[in-house]
Write a structure and sequence with these properties.
- With 114 residues, this protein is an alpha+beta fold.
- It has a single domain, classed as Glutaredoxin, CATH 3.40.30.
- 25% of the residues lie in helices and 17% in strands.
- The protein is built from three helices and four strands, in the order βαβαββα.
- The strands form two sheets. It has a two-stranded parallel ribbon with strand order 1-2.
- Helix 1 links the parallel strand 1 and strand 2.
- The longest helix is centred in the first third of the chain and has 12 residues.
- It starts with 16 loop residues before the first strand and ends with a helix.
- The model has no long low-confidence stretch (mean pLDDT 89).
């Protein structure tokens, strides 16, 4: 998540959001812990989905957590959505340690500008 700080260029008309089952307070604490590294704050919204409505709507709930205290945790997913709300690029990983590199997301964002 910390690596996403450098994804959006200053002044760029792009919004970046991160969604998790974490409470708003936990998300704020997480953002503060990232900023504590001295390389800048999280400059994007961390949205709280404790009832996993968005996670479920996109079919992202990881079934490995279904009967655990972490119920509702999603697969790591990244979407690029155009101004009309159409998903133009997506990547969903089944392994929580795998995330798309910034260059991959950046290429999808740049493709919208062509």
């Amino acid at each position: 998540m910390a690596g996403l700080r450098s994804l959006i260029e200053p002044g760029e008309a792009v919004s970046l959001w991160a969604i998790s089952v974490d409470s708003a307070a936990d998300s704020r604490a997480f953002a503060a812990s990232i900023a504590a590294d001295g390389r800048g704050e999280v400059a994007f919204r961390l949205l709280s989905d404790p009832d996993h409505r968005v996670i479920d709507a996109y079919g992202l709930a990881d079934p490995r957590y279904a009967k655990l205290a972490y119920f509702g945790i999603s697969y790591p997913a990244a979407y690029v959505v155009d101004r009309t709300g159409r998903i133009t690029w997506a990547r969903i990983d089944r392994d929580y340690t795998q995330r798309p590199p910034n260059r991959e997301i950046r290429a999808a964002i740049d493709a919208l500008k062509r």
